[in-house]
Specification:
Layout (H helix, E strand, L loop, with lengths): L1 H9 L5 H4 L11 E4 L2 E8 L33 E4 L16 E10 L6 E6 L5 E6 L2 E7 L5 E4 L7 E10 L24 E6 L3 E10 L2 E12 L6 E6 L4 E6 L5 E7 L14 E6 L4 E6 L4 E4 L2 E4 L2 E3 L1 E6 L2 E2 L4 E2 L3 H14 L3 E4 L6 H10 L2 E5 L11 H18 L5 E8 L5 H17 L4 E6 L3 E3 L2 E4 L10 E4 L16 E4 L5 E5 L20 H15 L5 E4 L7 E2 L12 E2 L12 H12 L6
Parallel strand pairs: 21-24, 21-33, 24-25, 25-26, 26-27, 27-30, 29-31, 30-32, 32-33
Antiparallel strand pairs: 1-10, 2-3, 2-4, 4-9, 5-8, 5-10, 6-7, 6-9, 11-12, 12-15, 13-14, 13-16, 16-17, 18-19, 19-20, 22-23, 28-29, 34-35
Helix pairs in contact: 3-4, 5-6, 7-8
Length: 596
Amino acid sequence: MKFFLVFLALCQLTPLLLFGQSAMIHIEGRQRISLNGLWHVIIDPFDAGSGDWAAYYKDRKPMTNTDFVESSFEEGQQLYVPGDFNSQLPELNYYESSIWYKRTFNIKETNTSRFFIHFAAVNYKAEVYLNGIKIGIHEGGFTPFQFEVTDHVRIGENSLIVKVNNQRIKDGIPGLGFDWFNYGGITRDVDLVQTPKTYIKDYFIQLAQNDENIIGGYVTLDGPSKEQEIKINIPELHVSFKTRTDKEGKVLLRFPLRKKTLWTPENPKLYEVHVSAETDRLKEQIGFRTIKVDGTNILLNGKSIFLKGINIHEEVPQRRSRAYSESDYKMLLDWAKELGCNYVRLVHYPHHEKMVKMAEKMGLMVWEELPIYQGIDFSDPSMKDKMNFMLKEMIARDKNRAAVIIWSLSNETYPSAERDSSLTALYHLTKSLDNTRLVTSAFNNMRFEENKAFIEDKVNGVMDVMAINQYLGWYKPWPETGQEVKWVSKFNKPLIFSEFGGEAVFGNNTDPKRASSWSEDYLVNIYQRQFNMFKNISFLRGVSPWLLVDFRSPGRAHPVYQKGWNRKGLLSERGEKKKVWYLVADYFKNLTSPEK
C-alpha cells in the first residue's frame, strides 16, 4: 500500500500558480452547473491583454462620459465551449496565440457549500480570472484541473474570464514540433461544481495486484471535518465495507470481493459502486480486472491475450476540428469496433475522460499516453516537474477505469543519459501511483543489420512491455533479398508494434510499385508483408496500425497528395475505407490466439 501514500503526498507538492489544483475525481457524479455554450471572446494575437493598460481580465466598462475603454467582450465575437478555436473562425485556422474567453453565471446562495471551476482541458496554457481576480494558471493541454472559488463567488452574477494560449514552446509538453494539429482553446467541458464543506475528493477502488479477490485502494476527504466514517457499497454483489478516515482525511481500503464477473472485452461488466462519507456521497460504474505480464505474455485476468488495436487521434477529420462530443467519440470508437479491435491506443496525449469511459463500456482496452513526444529537452530542469505533474493528472483521472491497461510515458524519444534517467524515474513514479496497470514507452530506434532488427534501447529493460514504432516499407525499405525481417530482443518481455504502416490517398492507384505515388495498392503491399513478418515473432503480443483515419498535420507538405494531412489512415478524412481497411479487418478476424 506504500504507493497509495506516495500518491496522496504528491498531490500537495506543486504550487497553485504553477500548475493549478489537481482535479477532484468523477466530475460527472457531482452537483454541477455546465458552463458549456457560447462564450464571448477577444482575439489577442500580440498578447497585449495581460498588461495594465489593456487589462482584458478586468472587463472594464465606460461608466461616465469621459471614460474610454478600448476593449469589450459583449460586442465582439463568440466561440463555442467545448471546442477548439481554430475550426470555428476561418481567420483562426492556423492561429497560435492568446484568446480571452468570458461568460457569466449566477449563484443563489453560498453559505453551506464550496464552489470549484473545473476544466476538463484547455490547450495549452490557461489563466483564470473570476470577478476581476486572478484565480490561478494551468499548463498542459489534455488533462483536467480545477480552482476553488468559494471565497471569490458572490450571490447573483459572476464573471469568469479565461485567457487561453496555444503557442508552441520549447519547454512545453509536447514541445515545438509534433505531427498533429495544434488545436487551441477551451477544448473540453467547463463546470461550476458545488460540494459540501467536506467532500470526497478522491478514491481508488480496484483489484489488488497480488490478489484478484481483494479490493485495494483509498479514499480521501477534503475539508474541515476530515475524520469521518466511510462506506463502500456494491449493491449487486452485496458488498458493504466500513472504515474511517484519519485526521488527514485519508484511509486505505482493503476488503474481499468474490463471486464477481471480471471485466473483459467480450463482457465489459461494470458495477455500481457507492462511496459514502458522513457529509458526501458518490456513485460510479466501475469494472474489475487484472492485467499482468508473465515472461512474453500479457495476461488479462490470468489469460494470455493478443492486443488487436488501432491508433486514434482525438480529431474529427470531416469537420477539421478537435473531437469534443459524445457523438464524436462514438464515431471513432465504432470504427475501431467495426475493424475488429479489442484495444485502442489513444495518441499522443490523454483523450477526454468521456471517450475513455465509452471505450470501457464498449469492451475496448485502452492505452493512454503522455504527450512526451520526440523533441522534449530532458536536460531542462523544469521538465521533470511538468512530466511528473501531467502523469499525476492523467492517472488521477482514469485510475478507476478497468479498460485502461497501459500507461505510456512517451513516444519516439531518443537515447541520452538525461532521457534514460527521466523515463526510468517516471516509470517508478507511475508504479508508486498505480501498480495495477502495465507501463511502457514507444520507441523507434531499432538497429537494422541486413534482414535483422535488434531491439536494444535499454529503457525497454525497465518497462513492463516493449513498444516499437516501425515503418518497414515506408520510412525504412524492406531487405532487398526478399527475406522477411527477423526481430531480435535481449529482453524477455512481450512486444507490441505500437505503430506501423504508410501513406496512401483514398482512390489513388497510380504506379503501385512506388512509395512516392501514395497508392492504395502500395499500402496494401506494406501491410501484407507486415502481417507475414508478424507470424515469426514469438514474443509479439499486440499490434496497432498507424492509424484509424487521416488527420491534419501542417508539416505534411506534399502539394498533391498530402496538403497538410497525414495520409496513413485506414480511412480517408471523409471516412472512406481504403483497401487496407479490409485487409486489417480480415487479419484481426482470423487472429484468435496469441500463441504462435
